[in-house]
Each structure stands twice: as structure tokens, then as C-alpha cells.
């Protein structure tokens, strides 16, 4: 009889263990309710976060989130104010003079600053894409652009060889090639001259400059050498484009140390007096950094 009771007790214990193997001890209905509540609470937290961004918490405005919003707006404004997309002649001149004084370690007097005029700077067309240099030059040179920039014939007594009407100055050979591609609509008949040292011998450039040249593009060092040699002339020069492109390292024509020195050497040697006399106009091509207020105010004091 004792063995029979032990068997019954074992069977009962096995049944009891089977009944407690349910993975959800609270039952399927209760677990479903809890999972729904969890999902709802997550959604409520997400909505609260969104309201906080808008400056509303529990139906009330939050001063903290308002301040955050103002901060974000000011940051965006500051970023937009860091550069000027379409600089006016006055903005171009202020930035140009700031760079001129900084690079050469000088401070121009108010009398000297009066010698520089806004009309010496060329403003690009606002309605034309920034990367369409050919179209900008058509507008800048006006109705005579074909005769000045596209004509191939020398014309005895009228056009001297090796004297471009448009000179484009950039910080590198690679950038010069990019700018020449933008100018292709103007250079199909009369090819532009490449004035940089990379893969180009100076003798080849001298030979090319014995023909009519309307457009030339290159780097400061090679341009100066060719002017020094009297191979490149300036008698027809009307517009100088200074490319303000910034490379991947953040350098530009005015900030890359060696190139900057070479440019200002070129400028002081051959362009400074012509700019003051109104014989040539300069254009800062592409966006430029915002001009410091103190510098701009000093110009008008």
C-alpha cells in the first residue's frame, strides 16, 4: 500500500510542474495589456520630446526650449553670415583691401583709401549661375564681347599679339583648367592660353603668346615671369578675375602662403597703378568671407 501512495504522489507532482510551465505567469490577456501599455507610454514620450522642441510642455510654453530655438536660429544665421555669395563692388573692395593690408603688413591711411573706387570692382550678374564664367564675361564686356573675346584675327595695327583682354588668376593649375572649361563657349575659335608651370614649358607658352590672345588663365608665379619676359602684354587688359575658390584644405588664392606672396608681388608690380587709374577692373569670383565690420567701417571714416 505504501508503494502505491508514493506512485500517486509522484504523478501529482509531475502534473503540478506541467501546469506551471506557462511562459506568461500572468496569463496571455494580462501580458497583452502590459505590452500595449508599454507601446502607449513610448508614443507619449516621443510626443513629449516633439513638444519640447516646439517649446510646449504640458500645454505650457517652455522658456528653456525657446532659448534653445533662438540659439539654433542664431547659429544658422552666423553660418550664413560667414560668406557672401554675390558680393557687391563695395564688399569686394573692402575684402580686397583687407587682404592687401594684411598680406603686406601695412595700414592704408584714409587719404590712400580714397584712391580706391567701387567702380574698380566688377559685379557679376545676379541672374546668372555662379559657375558660368563665360556668361558672366559676355555680360561684363557687353555687346562687343564677340569682337573682344572671340575674334581670332590679329588685325594689323589694332591688336598686338600676346595681349589678353581677360586674365584669370587662380591658386593652382588644376583649378585653372576648371575655369578654362567654364570659358569654352568663348574660346572655341581663339584658344585661351594656359599660364601655369605644371606640365607646361615656358618656351611653349612664349611661342603661343606670339599669336592673338583674348583670354589667359593661370597662376601668379608663371604669369609674372611671362610679363617680366615681355611675352605677355597688358595693353588690352580690361578685366582681371581673381578666383576665390577654396580647396579641400581650406586654402584660397589669398590664404595659401606661397601663392599669396606671389600674387601680391604680381599685383604690386603690374596691376596696382592700373587699378587706381581705372584702366582695369578686378572681380572676386565665387563667394568671399564676410568682411570684418571694423575694416569696412575704417574705409568710410
Automatic annotation (TrEMBL):
Residues 1-85 are annotated as: Disordered. It comes from the Eukaryota. Gene3D superfamilies: P-loop containing nucleotide triphosphate hydrolases (3.40.50.300). Residues 1-11 have a biased composition (Low complexity). Residues 67-84 have a biased composition (Basic and acidic residues). InterPro entries: Cms1, P-loop_NTPase. Residues 12-21, 42-55 have a biased composition (Basic residues). PANTHER family: PROTEIN CMSS1 (PTHR24030). This is Protein CMSS1. It comes from Cinchona calisaya.
